């Protein structure tokens, strides 16, 4: 038997306040109409809302305290759930879930004070909402294998030259700074020899093509043709970025699962309300016992997904083998559960669920997109088997 300490109680109270504040904000400012308006903007999201995220501290969650950070991964999970429920299109996951833990890890492994200060400066600008960051790691030939990197970083006098191609860079279309994973040594699919480089979005030789995904997220493809960088552009220890990069991807995966749980909850609530309002043969559809049973099945899937994704978030600071197992267990379960949830919501709404004018279709697209984001079910099951 365990007993809660005063600190535990205070943390629980603070987290409950964060949960309530996040729920109130997204209900008021992240409505379905606001989402559709944001998607029509040139960048596909609202810069005004991004500044609001910074003012509320949502961009600082989990960052080191001396870089303006506050809270921990559990607090980030709360915000991820709220943003998933609202189908927010701002690149919060790309920045707080992926770029921030990568920079924090690189800072810990920095070669010197100047390198550490460079990482800290990027983290501070992220927390304050001054600069948008994006991690360019995945490549076309690697699919979900982040370590399958052919982009090359070679010495050129006192600096570096980068050549290669990156794909599906989350938040890459609007990013001010790109954190590019490139191979300093070794061959493709080796975990060793990988470095991370700070590349300004306007660097000569960098070609960026933004792509909106079908669920409303913003991504980009990059081509680097002899992109020249100073020696200080490499962040962290030389050729030793893979453990840090893997941990950052695991963090983003766990928070993506939390986002998916929020979207699944929205599917349940939206579908339940529709079945209670829609009448057929003089009574609401919810009076049909078979349909009520299907809602119960949705509820069971959501609660299981909530529990397993929460367990993954709790293990992010554990030993690498423990963390990998917890994250892959969560993603392997939540991916098919999320897809089922979206499909059930569409089916229970009928033909109207296939239109862009109602929320359920957008929720279903987000959940189907999530199923393939950061590794699909099969990839994570294979990872578990290898472990």
Q: What do you see in this structure?
A:
The structure is a single chain. The protein is α+β, with helices and mostly antiparallel strands and 387 residues long. It folds into 3 domains: 6-127, Butyryl-Coa Dehydrogenase, subunit A, domain 1; 133-239, Butyryl-CoA Dehydrogenase, subunit A, domain 2 (Beta Barrel), CATH 2.40.110; 243-386, Butyryl-CoA Dehydrogenase, subunit A, domain 3 (Up-down Bundle), CATH 1.20.140. The protein is built from 11 helices and 10 strands. The strands form 3 sheets. A 4-stranded mixed β-sheet has the order 1-4-5-8, with helices on one face. A hairpin with a 2-residue loop joins β9 (279-280) and β10 (283-284). α7 packs antiparallel against α8. It is elongated and about 80 Å long. The relative contact order is 0.11.
How many structural domains can be distinguished in the coordinates? 3
Q: CA-to-CA gap between the ends?
A: 32 Å
CATH topology of the largest domain: Butyryl-CoA Dehydrogenase, subunit A, domain 3
Largest sheet data: 4 strands, mixed
Unreliable sequence segments: 1-10
Please compute the radius of gyration using only Cα atoms.
21 Å
- The helix/strand class is alpha+beta
Mean model confidence by pLDDT: 91
Run of helices and strands? HHHHHHEEEEEEEEHEEHHHH
Number of strands: 10
Name the overall outline.
Answer: elongated
């Amino acid at each position: 038997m365990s007993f809660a300490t005063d600190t535990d109680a205070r943390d629980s109270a603070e987290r409950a306040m964060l949960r309530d504040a996040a729920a109130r904000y997204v209900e008021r400012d992240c409505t379905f109409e606001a989402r559709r308006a944001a998607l029509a903007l040139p960048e596909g999201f609202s810069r005004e809302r991004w500044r609001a995220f910074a003012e509320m501290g949502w961009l600082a969650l989990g960052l080191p305290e001396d870089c303006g950070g506050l809270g921990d991964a559990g607090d980030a999970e709360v915000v991820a759930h709220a943003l998933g429920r609202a189908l927010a299109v701002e690149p919060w996951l790309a920045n707080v879930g992926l770029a921030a833990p990568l920079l924090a890890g690189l800072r810990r492994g920095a070669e010197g004070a100047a390198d550490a200060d460079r990482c800290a400066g990027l983290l501070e600008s992220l927390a304050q909402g001054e600069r948008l960051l994006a991690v360019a790691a995945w490549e076309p030939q690697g699919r979900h294998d982040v370590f399958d990197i052919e982009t090359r970083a070679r010495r050129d006098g006192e600096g570096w030259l980068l050549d290669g191609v990156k794909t599906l860079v989350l938040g890459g279309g609007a990013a001010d700074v790109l954190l590019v994973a490139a191979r300093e040594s070794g061959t493709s699919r080796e975990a060793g020899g990988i470095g991370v480089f700070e590349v300004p979005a306007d660097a000569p030789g960098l070609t960026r093509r933004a792509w909106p995904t079908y669920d409303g997220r913003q991504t980009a493809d990059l081509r680097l043709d002899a992109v020249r960088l100073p020696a200080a552009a490499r962040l962290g220890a030389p050729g030793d970025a893979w453990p840090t990069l893997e941990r950052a991807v695991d963090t983003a995966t766990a928070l993506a699962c939390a986002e998916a749980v929020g979207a699944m909850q929205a599917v349940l609530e939206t579908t339940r309300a529709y079945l209670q309002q829609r009448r057929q043969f003089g009574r609401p559809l919810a009076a049909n016992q078979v349909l009520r049973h299907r809602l119960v099945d949705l509820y069971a899937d959501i609660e299981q997904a909530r529990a397993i994704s929460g367990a993954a978030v709790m293990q992010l600071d554990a030993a690498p083998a423990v963390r990998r197992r917890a994250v892959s267990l969560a993603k392997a379960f939540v991916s098919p559960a999320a897809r089922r949830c979206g499909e059930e919501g569409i089916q229970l709404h009928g033909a109207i669920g296939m239109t862009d004018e109602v929320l359920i279709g957008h929720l279903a697209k987000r959940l189907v997109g999530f199923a393939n984001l950061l590794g699909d079910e099969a990839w994570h099951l294979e990872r578990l088997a290898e472990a």
